[in-house]
């Protein structure tokens, strides 16, 4: 069962503190798995870093700039992703996109963070739960 963030009826975090479902690209028809089940932890971070400058946001973007995105799936190694694209870098923020359809940004990586962290917005994803 694939559901958008707005329609989730099951817990997103399991008893071990990891994502309880596969994290997928939010674009209708794209089934790219960004993070596999039990790969990431839920964290709270600065949502303003996810906001692209207006000059770089395509007019037909499916994703809207929203600073209310403060909850993210966190991984510490880019190899933890099943599929993710790295798009433009603005300042010290490298934006993450879907590896299959290039929709983004779905998350970001602040290149100055130590230890490294890669973040995917929980609102900019769909979820596939085991039935």
From TrEMBL:
InterPro entries the UniProt entry points to: Mss4 (IPR007515), Mss4-like_sf (IPR011057), Mss4/transl-control_tumour (IPR011323)
Keyword Transcription regulation in record: no
PROSITE patterns in UniProt: MSS4
Keyword Protein transport: yes
UniProt superkingdom: Eukaryota
GO molecular function: guanyl-nucleotide exchange factor activity; zinc ion binding
Pfam families xrefs: Mss4
Any one GO CC term of the record: cytosol
Keyword terms of this UniProt record: Guanine-nucleotide releasing factor, Protein transport, Transport
GO biological process: post-Golgi vesicle-mediated transport; protein transport; small GTPase-mediated signal transduction
Protein name (database record): Mss4-like protein
Gene: PARPA_01361.1 scaffold 1359
